[in-house]
Amino acid sequence: MKSLPASGKLSETPLPVLLLELSRTRFTGALSLSRDRTTKRVLWRDGAPILAESNLASETLGVTLLDSGKLSREDYSKVVGYVQLKSCKEGKALLDLKLLEPKELFLALKEQLRRRILECFGWPDGAWSLDPKQVPPSDAQAFRLDPRVLAQDGIESHWSPERVLGSLGERLGRTVRASESRELLAGRLRAGSGVPKFLDALDGTCTLGEALRRGGAPGALSAAWVLDASGLLSYPDPGAQDDSPQNDVAAGLEDSDFDIEVLVSGAGASSPERPAAPKGMPSRSPAVAGAAGQESADAAVLRKEVTEKHARLDLDHYALLGIPREATPADIKRAYFSAAKRLHPDALSRNGLEALRKPANELFARIAKAYSVLSDPKARRDYDADASGAEEGEAERIAQAETLYRKGEVLVRKGAFQEAVKFLAPAVELWAEDAEYRSALGWALYKKGKSEPQPAREHLSKAVKLDPKNAVAHYRLGVVLRSLGEPEAAQKELALAKQLDPKSKAG
Description:
Blueprint: E1 7-9, H1 15-24, E2 29-35, E3 38-45, E4 48-54, H2 61-67, H3 73-86, H4 90-96, H5 102-118, E5 127-131, H6 147-158, H7 161-168, E6 175-178, H8 182-187, H9 195-200, E7 203-207, H10 208-215, H11 218-229, E8 233-234, H12 249-252, H13 297-310, H14 317-321, H15 329-342, H16 345-350, H17 357-374, H18 377-384, H19 393-414, H20 417-430, H21 435-447, H22 453-466, H23 471-483, H24 487-500
């Protein structure tokens, strides 16, 4: 790695690169991170982060404990009141109120530090700066975190498989060998799914792409990136790799387990296809059930849309989105988001339309371009005058929201409500006007270990307002209202849910 300048942009020097370089140089001082109105300051000592400050109210110690279910809403209110009364920090309040033991507080503060840093991996842009003069106070509690493990966790949580594979690039087709013993490498990483098998494959007999296939799980991807960026992988015969198409990023892992999401990475650029599940492994999304050999009505409609629009990719932006030229900004955003949901890989799989993945990706890339133009007032005016040009930040944000929602939705179906909240809450932040997102988040908040019926009610009420015909949202709201001691209002919602769909349930 090259020495870091005093400041830069995260789009040019990604956060995991920063973390590894600060660790390598045993940096002591402050790393400041900023994006829009969010600012964070991470204090380092001898190459490890030991303290982080944030201006986000959602990252206070009390909220962190509340979100993790380790603190009830009632106890959280006690902490807030005590802090205001005594003008002390939350940590002291938690100890004085005997809500946490000292060891529990230490672990909670360490987790708070970890979460404050990991949240920045999800920033699509931002700025950073270094100040070696801002050294940590001598009495600062050293919640030392391993930068390699932080980078591994952040990449696995926030980077798409395409981004990791794109970063590894041509090295995927080169023979790879570990520079250290397997035991030493394992000690530098968090043990995750696929990591042991991936490490076993680093013996110089296969390519990096093959080693990742042997790992067979997303955890191997983040481990590979960290080891490669740390200089712990060597490629002994750089001239021997095969330059055939089989060694490019997409083809190099076509038989792997990795669940690659569709992401909008550039106007007019189609997303890489997600590899099929390996032989003998079940598909992640079941095909549409129906009469043997017959296609469901939803699948038929989707097939027709993809086929017809893909055959006419030269349609104007309004026609692609299915909106009139006088459409409002809200209409444009709603139409784009609806298309993102219909053309998502999970939607195709659920409807048994895997064969349409490539044309659907190409179609969605054009729809994303149409949205990026029409959602920008100036670009829309230029387009209406037979010109074009726009930015895609909003399109990327909506695509990210859909991916987060899909992951949260799976966890809700599994009953892992606490984990689901971690994906659904940011999805709602990115796109607050989607009824399904609101409904799923409200239900997860209600059903998780430390139930939060009041916030759940707020999200579910918003969901039924956004989509009055959403039977599931009405049903869920009825259940929550009943738990809050409002039987009449609950019965009204449950009756409406049954009227809309006699088989409606929470899901």
